Write the structure tokens for this entry.
Amino acid sequence: MDARESALDTAHRRATEFLTTLDDRPVWPRAGLDEMLAAFGGPLGEHGIDPAAVVDEIASKAEPGLVAIPGGRFFGFVIGGTHPAALAADWLVSAWDQNSGSSTLTPATVAMERVAGQWMLDLFGLPESASVGFVTGGQLANFTCLATARNAVLGKVGWDLAERGLRSAPRVRFVVGADRHGSIDRASRFLGIGRAEVTVVESDDQGRMRAGALERTLAAEQGPLIVCLQAGEVHTGAFDDFETLIPIAQRHDAWVHVDGAFGLWAAASESLRSLTKGIERADSWATDAHKTLNVPYDCGMAIVRDPSDSIAAFRTGGDYLIYSGLDPWDVTPELSRRARGVPAWAAMRSLGRAGITRLLDGLHANAVAMAAGLSAIGAVEVLNDVDYTQVMFCLDSDDATRALGEAILLDGTAAVTGAEWRGRATLRCSMSSWATTRADIDRTVAAIRRLVEH
Ligand SMILES: *Cc1c(COP(=O)(O)O)cnc(C)c1O
């Protein structure tokens, strides 16, 4: 065997070992960063070793520090799950080594990304002419959309940002909801928008922006305007009321951006679609494939209604070409990059429309079952309306809630992560994986009951 073949064989064997033991291993790792640094650290040796031996060494040393994220009982943050077709396609992406910024250079992978983008627009009910830029995740999707938005709203008042820069530009008002995701603040920071320059609009008990508050905010100000809404609040899973809010923003000539990292996918299910009603009227949408679609990490999408806005913000060189020749590097900040849209194509091809709907409905049904199971434990209070995939709960004191969170991770049956909501310590349970079964829910509820009632 040549070196590549034996290295890949080893990776296949070790990956399979990991995946087949997911159900039995503690979900949270038994080793921390210091142990992992000790395992992998030390000076770089003078002489190299065989590639297959490197793969074996990695797999053995990493073992105690790995989290069972692809298993059925990882409910932390809003991540998790890798669909088999996406996982295997991701291996091909690395083997092929296609630099996927340009269609001339890598036609096969750019074509798959373009088609994956079209499928998503169709699933989400968004305009089929929108541009879809594949970026590393929701953070960069938000950044990409907001950079495009800023360029466009300044352009509308006659300010050419690419030529004249930001320093003396008209002020862009940036209006966000009180329960926006932290990545919106980071994106605005990358864009040179300071915390003091952001206007925050009050939200309701589930984290949805209040329409009256948005009206009042917008009435008070003039000038270029970006309004940022949200599909899927990370604690409650709540969706802004797009049907009401977008027209308000548009009456004030705003660019409307929607952070739909995991929530935009609700539009792909008939029974969940009503949560996203009116969302298609926005100007840009950020979402992730590595969350709800269950592809490996490094796959988010920046969707922009008018591709010429994307091109104006990102195309290299000054030429304004027609966008039938839209290349990946025309619509995102990157040049060289991996073919991250291929696993998304693979997951959608493997699931089909019906499979995607079933995935979404299954995540929601699991969340409902988890909430019911947890509520049946006397001391547990479920805090949110379980309209989508998130379940947030607590015990009667912050200390008890935090202690339970630690006990759950130590127990190893499942992983949930802590948060703070309206001044209270909470635990968050996110249904994000195709691999979660009803048995996983039952096992998790039983473990939490045991820990609460010990
Ligand atoms: C996860 C998440 C993000 C950030 O996405 P990454 O893929 O982690 O970069 C942004 N917004 C929301 C609502 C999220 O849930």
Observations:
- The pocket of pyridoxal-5'-phosphate is lined by residues 78, 137-139, 181, 183, 232, 234, 259, 261-262, 288, 300 (CB under 6 Å).
- The chain has two domains: 2-68, 88-346.
- The mean pLDDT is 95.
